[in-house]
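Design request, tokens follow.
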């Protein structure tokens, strides 16, 4: 098995500073929203992004005009549904980041968003499959555990599916886990978080952090905080939305990791991608260690073989939940 420390150091840096070697057009769908705006700002600040295409049902011309005054290389254009704006936004895109859809209010689960967001993600994925089938698709819209199967099934139906290019963005769970451990230890290290992106499917692997010692009580409390960190923000925002700024940071980190990998850097991230790790349990998507390359996923890595019994039990529970949410996404596409 691989050494956890090298995994940590490989993906530690949030943003690189070197200038772009390849032109990269990135489209953001849902770009005028709570995540979309700060995420677009961070992408505009990334020297590897040469073109930034902002699509939303409203307000993107203003967001694009504003970001367009920032003196970085990316050319920014805003699109709305008028004049076939979605297709124009996607034309030539190398990467499409999708934070379009409604966020939670207090008392809701991510799955409660399915009835609105499933259709949004399906229609946006249909446009991607038609216009930019080779783009890397980064799905942020919740419930990720179902929206990734939805987007994948749309691409399969269209005959253009490449499992190496569709990602559920679970980076916020890693960002949170890292921050919570920093609060405890004063050390800023990466914490692998695997499984999915909702409640008990979020599985932090504290055993993989070198030198980290937690009592059982500390481990339980930290695990709960990572699994339900989204609820903390939803509650604090009191009905006005869910995490936007930390998500923008996490999404920009994941996009930067892919862009660095496309330039030949060896990068490992954690992401909800197609794999056979739990095929025997009937699931196709599971967030795990992923080596990134120029095509997207270069290698799906298994979970470390030295998980604790506590972590193994979390995986069993998470897999059982993922079976339901994956099926729900699959059925949504195939029942229409
Ligand atoms: N993966 C994660 O870790 C993570 C973290 C935080 C939030 N989220 C999810 O991201 C989504 C967006 O959250 P937000 O806070 O930015 O919400 P928001 O309401 O502030 O923004 C969503 C944007 O999507 C746009 N939109 C709606 N339908 C669209 C369509 N068909 N095409 C294009 N744009 C469309 C809206 O106009 C809006 O501007 C939610 O589903 C939320 O649950 C995921
Ligand atoms: O909690 C939410 O609904 C948003 C997001 O998935 C998060 O983890 O913050």
């Amino acid at each position: 098995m691989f050494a956890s420390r090298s995994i940590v150091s490989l993906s530690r840096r949030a943003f690189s500073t070197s200038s772009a070697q390849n032109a990269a057009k990135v489209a953001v769908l849902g770009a005028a929203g709570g995540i979309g705006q700060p995420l677009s700002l961070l992408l505009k600040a990334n020297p590897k992004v040469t073109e930034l295409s902002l699509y939303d049902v409203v307000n993107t011309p203003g967001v694009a005009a504003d970001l367009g005054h920032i003196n970085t290389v990316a050319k920014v254009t805003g699109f709305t549904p008028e004049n076939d704006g979605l297709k124009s936004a996607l034309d030539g895109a190398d990467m499409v980041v999708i934070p379009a859809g409604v966020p939670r209010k207090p008392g809701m689960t991510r799955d409660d968003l399915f009835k609105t967001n499933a259709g949004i993600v399906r229609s946006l994925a249909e446009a991607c499959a038609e216009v930019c089938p080779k783009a890397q698709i980064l799905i942020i819209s919740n419930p990720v555990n179902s929206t990734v199967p939805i987007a994948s099934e749309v691409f399969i139906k269209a005959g253009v599916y490449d499992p190496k290019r569709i990602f559920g963005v679970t980076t916020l769970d890693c960002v949170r886990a890292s921050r919570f451990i920093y609060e405890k230890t004063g050390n800023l290290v990466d914490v692998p978080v695997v499984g999915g992106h909702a409640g008990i499917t979020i599985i932090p692997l504290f055993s993989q952090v070198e030198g980290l010692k937690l009592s059982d009580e500390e481990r339980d409390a930290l695990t709960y905080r990572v699994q339900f960190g989204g609820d903390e923000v939803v509650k604090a925002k009191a009905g006005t939305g869910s995490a936007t700024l930390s998500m923008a940071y996490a999404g920009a980190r994941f996009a930067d990791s892919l862009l660095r990998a496309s330039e030949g850097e060896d990068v490992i991230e954690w992401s909800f991608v197609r794999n056979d790790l739990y095929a025997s349990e009937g699931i196709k998507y599971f967030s795990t260690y992923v080596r990134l390359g120029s095509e997207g996923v270069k290698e799906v890595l298994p979970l470390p073989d030295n998980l604790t019994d506590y972590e193994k039990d979390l995986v069993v529970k998470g897999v059982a939940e993922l079976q339901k949410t994956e099926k729900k996404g699959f059925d949504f596409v195939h029942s229409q």
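Comment from the thread starter after seeing the answer: thanks! The radius of gyration is 19 Å.
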